[in-house]
Amino acid sequence: MRPSGRKLDELRPVSIEIDVMKHAEGSCLIRMGETHVLCSATVEDKPPPFLKNTGLGWVTAEYGMLPRATNSRTRREAAAGKQSGRTQEIQRLIGRALRAGVDRSALGERQIVIDCDVIQADGGTRCASITGGWVALRLAVNRLMKAGIIVSDPILDHVAAVSCGVYAGQPVLDLDYAEDSTAGTDGNFIMTGAGRLIEVQMSAEGATFSRAEMGRLLDLAEAGNTMLVAAQKAALG
Amino acid sequence: MRPSGRKLDELRPVSIEIDVMKHAEGSCLIRMGETHVLCSATVEDKPPPFLKNTGLGWVTAEYGMLPRATNSRTRREAAAGKQSGRTQEIQRLIGRALRAGVDRSALGERQIVIDCDVIQADGGTRCASITGGWVALRLAVNRLMKAGIIVSDPILDHVAAVSCGVYAGQPVLDLDYAEDSTAGTDGNFIMTGAGRLIEVQMSAEGATFSRAEMGRLLDLAEAGNTMLVAAQKAALG
Amino acid sequence: MRPSGRKLDELRPVSIEIDVMKHAEGSCLIRMGETHVLCSATVEDKPPPFLKNTGLGWVTAEYGMLPRATNSRTRREAAAGKQSGRTQEIQRLIGRALRAGVDRSALGERQIVIDCDVIQADGGTRCASITGGWVALRLAVNRLMKAGIIVSDPILDHVAAVSCGVYAGQPVLDLDYAEDSTAGTDGNFIMTGAGRLIEVQMSAEGATFSRAEMGRLLDLAEAGNTMLVAAQKAALG
Amino acid sequence: MRPSGRKLDELRPVSIEIDVMKHAEGSCLIRMGETHVLCSATVEDKPPPFLKNTGLGWVTAEYGMLPRATNSRTRREAAAGKQSGRTQEIQRLIGRALRAGVDRSALGERQIVIDCDVIQADGGTRCASITGGWVALRLAVNRLMKAGIIVSDPILDHVAAVSCGVYAGQPVLDLDYAEDSTAGTDGNFIMTGAGRLIEVQMSAEGATFSRAEMGRLLDLAEAGNTMLVAAQKAALG
Amino acid sequence: MRPSGRKLDELRPVSIEIDVMKHAEGSCLIRMGETHVLCSATVEDKPPPFLKNTGLGWVTAEYGMLPRATNSRTRREAAAGKQSGRTQEIQRLIGRALRAGVDRSALGERQIVIDCDVIQADGGTRCASITGGWVALRLAVNRLMKAGIIVSDPILDHVAAVSCGVYAGQPVLDLDYAEDSTAGTDGNFIMTGAGRLIEVQMSAEGATFSRAEMGRLLDLAEAGNTMLVAAQKAALG
Amino acid sequence: MRPSGRKLDELRPVSIEIDVMKHAEGSCLIRMGETHVLCSATVEDKPPPFLKNTGLGWVTAEYGMLPRATNSRTRREAAAGKQSGRTQEIQRLIGRALRAGVDRSALGERQIVIDCDVIQADGGTRCASITGGWVALRLAVNRLMKAGIIVSDPILDHVAAVSCGVYAGQPVLDLDYAEDSTAGTDGNFIMTGAGRLIEVQMSAEGATFSRAEMGRLLDLAEAGNTMLVAAQKAALG
Questions:
Q1: How does it assemble (chains A, B, C, D, E, F) (predicted)?
Q2: pTM summary value
Q3: ipTM for the complex?
């Protein structure tokens, strides 16, 4: 029934390749089927100005998309002179999600910037950015700890994200572009490794929904995120 | 227990005053306690370019805040030269929410722009904008129908929104600023008059949450939105 | 003869409601007929950089207009990405006018920002902004003096403004939009409570003018400003 | 008494050199003492969009200043990414002033753009731009008439401008920078060749003023503008 | 003597992997040692406006760099709100170089946009972009010809580019970052498959140079470009 | 054969008038035929931030063009809100060229900004800017040395620039606009007084070129730059 032939509760093939960028403190290339996102973590010695002298650190994210990551070319935001509302919304979400898994006091007065650049898009780029961004963050923190710069691990738990939606009347896991562009209801679910919720964003793109439908999507999301956390663990060895 | 002395499931005093702007096709001033938002609807003869020759209309929204709507002055976005990510995120949300309650085919090839300008802010400005914006939209559509420009009512149902969150360990309805700024979990719930969900946005600002907690917030939101829909009806007479 | 039926030397009904904004140090809503402007004063502890260590303070102003304050919707400047030349010209004028009534040495090294936001426009918004902005300024200074932060009153005199013009061949006071849009000559006159001139801006919109005509407009403006100063006094009690 | 040793009612040496730019339809270099402005007129076949099919033409102006026209270097506006409020205010004034001397119906559906670029600044650049800009406009219109493109002369009269102010307690004509930067009251006076007023802008920079003082400045301005119109005539031969 | 241990006339290992982007009409990932650039070609049905009704086509290029392609993180240009002068200079160069190898009349009224995004930077990104960009262009044109949209091949010859410079007193081929950042003289050489010159840009970064030195760098560049053209051929099969 | 009737190796008439701007530390107006560029040098007490505490100074350049310097009016970059890619490329080139002739250690921790504003354009504006910009720089440095602020002369040699190209099949020196707009190959050659090369930029605008052609253009450029250096010397007395 799904365009890809997947089962209702089947993720796309997940692949997370780590240490793909020579210069970054942490990096990975995450592939969710045909959606490919390059994630890097940069450690900065100083926190943002509003955290000076608070003892707290910060994790923030930026999101971009290569112009031809999409089916028809998207105008380059640098040439347009600004980031779109969509881009800003996504990068605020990624940053918020990752911070929910970090003890900012243990991180100390520094900032980690997660860059998520979509090399190829086929739906679910924001979720892939969160799942991959967390791996880059984990690698950068490992390096800080190995170097003795941070003593106590500031990472509280895994953070992973998956989308679910109602496609052709059925709740399905991990929408690809063909599904996403026609789904009635659609949601992004961000969870910890322990299964706690970090962020739920459900939206009636074409049809309003009931609490019961919401429950079924949450069921799918819980299963999906469990598999994604396992993929993160496998990638990190 | 709440800073305002309200009960856990008590809305702030709601007031919706209609026809407050001489020039707009529809307008209202909505007050949720000390949060005041001026909402206006502008009818434009043409739809946005991407809908030309589709027979479909569009509803969009813009959001702004007077510099001194807030406790300390916020820099004017026009002077800063761009709308913040937060502003863009909010106005995208308002437009999406209102469109979910509109039959765009019955609306026909025209656009209605909803402007939501926060005159005074005390938490919950995006929800008040949606609830008030819907009233402005309803009034503008009434005018189009009275003038015979639209024959079949494009408005499918009421749209209202309320925030809920976990404050001091308790689920509470309709957060004001004092609560919002310290809430652990926090969500916006947009619903129709019939009680269907349009958008759910829950976020772990300080603490992750369980499905059970999510359920309790949804219970509160359903009750709150029922009261807001009643207030919309009362305001429209 | 005037579209509104007013006499040649008759102001529109003036109303100045004070303390309308919960958060501001001073605020008022001024209504000149159907022109409504919300004015607020924000006290900042520091002067602008160019006044550091001079012992002098500063008063500045920003001006905005809600998109649907006007008959047809005006594009939001924040969305356009810049303030128009007209907006900048007006806010420079408001700031200059208010500074002319202030002893910046008595004010000390701080800045007061006057925000004038037009809620509804029917001509004469810049003059209403000055007259109302002064009230907001006065209230903010009262608060500073009451708190003992300023000892000697830095406000030298009232500042009020009114427009006059030649409409249908006759000099008239306080142009509304219907008059303003067809007036031949048109001017803004800013004066102190003592009747001294602060700024005179006369412009031949459609017809050049003589010194005699200029004199007649000044006569009207003097009478009008006297009434506006009385309205300021009444509003402040 | 004046820093330059000039008499109270004495203009700086005026020089207007015409046809200084190879490519422009009309051009001049105007020198008011050490203030030098290069003015050019460009004829465009089409009017601005808002005048399409009205039979009316338009005259507009743009103003700029070389970075080192001033005593200390001013940041290049192109590098800053926008024109300052001051620049916009000045170019709006120049355009408005020149249009007051033009029969836009006789001009027909075309636009003339006047560029005024300050090569060297010593006070009074906006007035010099108007006086020189008019000469460039006159030359461009002459060319249009000579080519038979325009039949009836759209130029109604000369337009010239001069500043006056109260310096060291005395009303003086044609302020240079040394005077302008310390003047109490200060005004720009734009007039036609016949002595009618086009625009009067007086401002209490440091001291409010009376109608009597205003009158004395107007007397000076009338005399000054008469001399400037004579200089325009001499330059045009 | 070279930091990498390469011989003076030795290129870095070159790898060109084609068809790496699912959506693009042509694409490749070019690796010159640790410099990796993703190149895609997008075919647009319409030429840029200035070529309408000329029968001629256009090839243009855009260049970008992931923030963490570099050793320390570079600010994202989309966030900065504009492309840097360096970026614009490079993308103008790439477009100019590729157009020199195209018969724009045979291409017809369409545009091919080459996007070159640096995934990892280690010197020589603009040369790699040209060499890889040409491969993406070739693939997109192949597709147009296969589909019968273009009949006569518009590609006149290969285009490849390499940098050479004087490092530690010796002329060396294909500078990497360690060499580039300390090179005295430095140049980019763009050539056709037949060995004709398209663009030569030599610059005295630290030391001026003689014609003889220029000749020695040209000798190296000719050899290097011959190898790069061979690599292009090998990649295309 | 050349549109101007010049011989193949003949420069346009060169004129360099010094000290033309009252406020600048150094200035000249350079005329290469109908191309006129006003060059000024501004000395700033502080180096750019990246050179703080290095003991090194900096020379930078900005380039602009009056809107009607060109045959048809060019949009004002300040009004467009940004400098074009062409402008940025040119000003980067000017700065790089002039720095190649300066001992930045002898200059010390200060910055000299060279502004090159094209008053009239007829081809070759970037070369004229370099040749004239060097004169402005020389004059500003002379003043610093005379004032004892700099002891050892930081200027190593003259810097001059000229364009050459293949026009109608013949190598010609110092292209004017008529030649430049149709030239097949085209280059800019920047040299020192001693005849060393600083920058060579050759581009196949319409036709690729051989090393032999490149050599012939270099011959012309060497002769041309020798004459330009002589003109610089003559202008400086």
A1: Homohexameric ring arranged as a trimer of dimers.
A2: 0.92
A3: 0.95
